[in-house]
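REQUEST ID: PR-0412
SUBMITTED BY: lab tech R.K.
PRIORITY: routine
TASK: structure prediction, single protein chain
INPUT:
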Amino acid sequence: MAGASKAHNLLANNFMRKAWDALQGRKYQVFTSDVRVVLEENNHYVYPDVVVSCDPDDQRDDYQLRKPLLIVEVLSASTASYDRPDKFQHYKKLPSLRYYVLVYQERWLVEWYHKNEAGEWVHHLLDGPDDVLEIAELNLRLSLADLYAATTIAPLRRLPPPSGDQPR
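STATUS: complete
OUTPUT:
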């Protein structure tokens, strides 16, 4: 996305750097928003913030990917209403896609989805400084503290329950 905020850029770069480190020496490639993903040949293309592919055909094409494994979108006020519901519906049509990650830039919040063995998309929500996004297949382990490092975005404060409502 041209004209993205510094926070947007830092979040995408932090994710990309961790993915790059996790995938070194393996058949996977990590790309940023300048490489397009083909949703519908000769008709519909998108430029995700971070994308990972391990497909040999994708590695031979210099400009685009057709079989991404993981897609990351950093949400902004202007893109969230499209990236979250609509773009995800398009991404779900990609047979190769197994992971979709949404990173919020207003607060420490990550929503991510993985496709299970039954082909169903499972939703995960991370919002604490100790929360970790872990994708074993990619050897990727990314804490929210690392993801939001160097940004001015503050984590949500979790308040203790009122004193009268203590669990027994």
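NOTES: The chain has a mean pLDDT of 88.
REVIEWED BY: pending
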